[in-house]
Amino acid sequence: MLYLITLGFDEKFAIRSMVSKGLKPDDEVVILMPEGSVGYSQSKAERAFNNLKQFVETVQPKLKIIRVEVEVRDLTSSVAKIQSVIRSSSQREIYANLSGGMRILIIEVLLALVLLGIEAEIEIELEDMEATVKLYSSYFFKEELDWTDRIILSTLLNSEKSVHEIVSEIERDLAESDSQPPSRVTVWRRILELEKKRLVDHRNIGKMKYYKLTNKGEFLVKLTRKG
């Protein structure tokens, strides 16, 4: 896993996230910091980095940790530099903790991920450490969904279903309306497209496939449903 950590004065958010996720020897940790002392007390930033580095080296001595400083006042160069770091990593799974550091640096990391079109798990811990909000970079990707896509996704909101169950539920829901329900073949084809968009996932039970919403799919359905 590639860890992207924005760091400011305090390393506690980064350490808590690493403890929660569980560091592995083949992980890579990238610590993102503003270049120089832009808006920062350099000594506090250095102390936070050294404490974090010591923690990582204690927990996983062989783990690769990289410090990357970006010129946060130059949006283009900052995003390009972060993108280069992401591209150069051999890790396929990406986790970004954006709880610390400057707000502009956090935005630059988000922009880098979104413009690359890369799926990454993102966590932001509240300042009072009472809760952590989890989201995914794909939440920012624009999806073109028509009526058929949306009604299929809506049927999966509360439970996983087979194609047959999805078709049956849509037919029941539209029984008293003027709308024509999509055919079984149409539903099946659309589900394959929704899987490609990472809005739907499936698991096999015997010879049957059961489909469910991904985190992104659930997020979109709850925000766009009427009523």
From TrEMBL:
A Pfam family hit: Csa3_N
Highest taxon of the lineage: Archaea
Name of this protein: Csa3 N-terminal domain-containing protein
Cross-referenced Gene3D superfamilies: 3.40.50.11700, Winged helix-like DNA-binding domain superfamily/Winged helix DNA-binding domain
Source species: Candidatus Marsarchaeota G1 archaeon BE_D
InterPro entries, A to Z: Csa3, Csa3_N, WH-like_DNA-bd_sf, WH_DNA-bd_sf
Residue ranges of every copy of the Csa3 N-terminal domain listed in the record: 2-125
SUPFAM superfamilies named in the record: Winged helix' DNA-binding domain
